[in-house]
Amino acid sequence: MKLTRRQVLTTGAALALLPRRAFAAMPELVAAESRQQIAPEGYPDTAIWSYGGGTPGPEIRVAQGDRVSRRLVNKLPQPTAVHWHGIRIDNAMDGVPGLTQEAVPQGGSFEYDFQVPDAGTYWYHSHNRSMEQVARGLYGPLIVGEPQAPDIDRDIVLMLDDWRLDPETATIDGNFDNGHDLSHAGRFGNLFTVNGRFDPAFEVKNGERLRLRLVNAANARVLEVGLDGLEGWIVALDGMPLEAPLVVSGAFSLAPAQRADLFVDVTAESGAAASLLSIERDGGFGLCRFDVGGQAAQARRGVPEALPPNPLPEIGDLAAAPLHEMRLQGGAMRWLDRALLGETEMGGRELAQLGKFWALNGRADRPEAPFLDAARGSLHRIAFVNETGFDHGMHLHGHHFRLIGANGEPGPWRDTVLVPPGETRQIALAADNPGKWLLHCHMLGHAMSGMTSWFRVT
Ligand code: C2O
Ligand code: CU
Fold this sequence. Notes:
- The chain is mainly beta and 458 residues long.
- The protein has 3 domains: 28-145, Sandwich (Immunoglobulin-like); 154-295, Immunoglobulin-like; 318-457, Cupredoxins -  blue copper proteins (Immunoglobulin-like, Sandwich), CATH 2.60.40.420.
- Helices cover 7% and strands 45% of the residues.
- It contains 5 helices and 33 strands.
- It has helices at 5-17, 130-133, 179-183, 348-353, 444-448; strands at residues 28-36, 46-51, 60-63, 67-74, 82-85, 109-115, 120-126, 139-145, 154-163, 191-194, 201-206, 209-216, 223-228, 230-237, 240-247, 252-254, 259-266, 273-280, 283-295, 323-330, 338-341, 344-347, 358-360, 363-364, 372-374, 378-386, 392-396, 401-404, 410-414, 416-419, 424-431, 435-441, 452-457.
- The two termini are 45 Å apart.
- It binds CU-O-CU linkage (C2O) and copper (II) ion.
- CU-O-CU linkage binds next to strand 5 and strand 32.
C-alpha cells in the first residue's frame, strides 16, 4: 500500500504522541517446557515448565518507582498468565484470568507493563492452573531496590520450594487434581530445593553481613525456618520493611507466598559451613549451605537500621472501620455440609465430586458478587475465622494490609497472612487501589478447590 502525503502526516503525528518506550522492543518472558537437574546429582534431570529456560525464572531487578515491561510468550501446552505477587499494581496488569485478563492461549502473548511503587522482595508466578503450573516451576524473583543501598556485603535471593518427584525417575508427579491433597493440607513435596537446586552452596566469609531474601514458592508447605552459623534480624516481611529489625531467635514460619528479608552476620568460622534450616518436629535439616572461607575485611557491624519505609497508605481510626468476617470452611474432618457454587446450592458430597472441598462464607469458588465492595480510600477490618482443621495463608491482591495484633494495634504490613486451624486473624485494609482484586488461600490446591473470592475498589 502506498501512503498518501496526508496519511504519512497523520501517522507521524500519532506516533509523536506515543510514549517513547513504545518504540523499544519489550523484553520477552518465554514460558516453555524445559529440563533441569532438580534432584541430587546421580538422578536424572526433570522435565519442568519454566520462564526463560530455568526455574526459578530470570531475576527481574529494578529500582523503586521504575517500570517492569515483559512480553509473556506462551509456549506451554496450556493457557497461562503471570501474576506479580505483592506488587501494588495497576489492576489491568495483575494477571488473573477471568478477572483482569483472558488467559494467554498456547502460542499467544501478553504485554505486562507496570510501575513498582515499593522497594522489597516480590515474586512472579503463573496464575492459571497455578496448582499445577507453579508446581512445575513457573515462578521467579522480582526484586525492587531501595533508593539507597543498605550496608551489607552480599544480597542473596533464596526461593524455597518442595517438589513431588518420582523417587526413581525424578519426574514430577502429575496427579494435581487428587482429592486427598485438595481436601487436606495440600500438595507437599518429597524434595526441597533452593533456587531450583538441591542443597546449593554459597561462598561467604566469616563476619560478612548477608541480606537473605527468602521466598516460599511451595504449593502448600509452611516452612519453619532456622539459622545455623548465622545471626541476625528480620528486616522486612512480604517486601515491606519492619519499623524496627526483629532479632531472629529460634525458628520463624514462612507460609506459601510469604517473604522474609534477613540481615545476617556469618558467625561460623572460616573452613566451617553455615546453613539455612527447615525445622521439623523431629529435628531439622539444611536447605542450603554457606561455605565459609576467610575473614571479612571489616569488623562485625552493629544492629542494622530499619529499611526506609515504602509509600503505604495511612491506617486511620481502626475502631471506626467496618469489620467484615470471612469464615474459612470445609476440608477433611470438617467436611462442608453445603455451599453455593455459583448460584447453585449443593451438598458437600456433590461439591466433593466436582473437586470442591472448601468455602469462604458458604461460597465455593469466586462468586459473582465481591466479598467486599470498598469505596476508594476507605478503611476496613477483615477477620479471617478459620473453622477448618488446616492452616490457610490468605492473600489479597493489589494491596498490603496491616496485621492487627492481639493488643488491637496495627502490626506489620503483609500481603499474605497465615491463619492456623481454629484461630482468627484480623487485618486492616486501606482500600486505595481501584480494580477487581482476588482474595484467596495461597495453598494452591485450596484455592483451586473452593478457597477463592474477590473484592472490588471503586
Ligand atoms: Cu501469589 Cu493470587 O497469588
Ligand atoms: Cu487454604
